[in-house]
Model the fold of this input.
Amino acid sequence: MTQLIRSVELSPGLYVVATPIGNLRDVTLRALDTLASVDVIYAEDTRQTKRLLDTYAISAPLKPYHDHNGAQMRPRILRDIEEGRAVALVSDAGTPLISDPGYKLVRELTEAGHSVVPLPGPSAAIAALSAAGLPTDVFTFAGFLPPKSGQRQDRLRAFSAQKATLVLYETGPRLVDTLQDLVESCGGDIEVVLARELTKLFEEFRRGSAEDLLAALKDEPPPKGEIVLLISMTGEPAGEASQEQIDAYLREHLPKLGAKGAANEAARKYGKPKRELYARAVELQKSEEP
Ligand code: SAM
Done:
């Protein structure tokens, strides 16, 4: 087998490296090349990152960068780069800065004119969205909601006005409370997908209306592991829209948007293939011609 991990020449700067969210093989070759070649890796939890590096027999100096030492570490990282070093930033799992530390660091470095290079890879939000079966053309990622119920309900109400799929990070013990807040603030008929332990042994997707999922989860112990909660805020109740509903929507929008525009809008609203809706829109258009 050819050597998969290569040592590469890196110019000075910050390399923001995404790492696995569970399955350690979900890492790009470029991420491994970079981690093997930088002068220093700043990690949210050095022990966790060491496990990943050991798996791939990579040794590199590891230093901590997290919410509690960020202010102290940023000038050091700036100095590292000014002195010509290539520096990697990794978080415990997934993409740094996505509900993880790094924003202030990236901001300060870009403001100082340094190079910041993204190395894309896993992120729980995108992994969940890619398999949930909810509309993906417009989505809002909101990380963790506030811990207080009243604030949570306010946020959920505000998000529901956006008509997008809402992607949240959630914890097992808080899940029922969040679903309860969702039902109270936005109604029980909203379609929800629970994505748990993605890429791990007990990966699970549960789909249903907010009300049904809440009723089921109330009777169970809090789910273990890591959770992404996806909520379809597109204004459609859970369950398939009927052909009559879709036809009515297409008819309403045909005069103004034409077949293509009406089909695109309907595809967004109902999460159905554009091509199928375009064919139906053309059919309806023809049937209404004098
Ligand atoms: N930066 C990470 C990313 O790109 O996904 C997210 C970090 S955030 C501190 C951790 C949260 O992400 C977890 O509490 C959970 O909500 C979600 N998460 C991370 N890994 C996950 C997984 N394997 N399955 C489901 N959710 C996950």
